[in-house]
């Protein structure tokens, strides 16, 4: 089975150009669009729908950094296994605890919530730069798997903050 990258004719890298991904998805989607198969047999229509579904699934995984990083690790045989493996370095665990405390204290205070969001956004950007190096340059998938779990936590707390700001 083709990887999501090969399905969209993209290099398997974490540092993926968002515009190139969008173009690749649109081109692949156009090739299997239902309008192209309007006069096709039922079996051909079904296959086209399966391809369209797979192309959309590839796009959804590759467009989100956390999902793309986890996918690259899995392709290399290093499952992130976030449900069963919650091991993280002590420094990051301390940051988690600090952020959780700040989140509790900031509830209802839009300025404090925005400040926390800015801090966590900066941490996310640093983590994504680290993942670019680990995945694209060093090919250190074991370390990258741990960083992906950290990015998963960051994504979750960002969603919580956003729901409180909105």
From TrEMBL:
Residues 3-75 form the J domain. The keyword Chaperone applies. Keywords: Chaperone. GO terms for biological process: [2Fe-2S] cluster assembly; protein complex oligomerization; protein folding. Pfam families: DnaJ (PF00226), HSCB_C (PF07743). Belongs to the HscB family. Co-chaperone involved in the maturation of iron-sulfur cluster-containing proteins. Seems to help targeting proteins to be folded toward HscA. This is Co-chaperone protein HscB homolog. It comes from Pelistega suis. The gene is hscB.
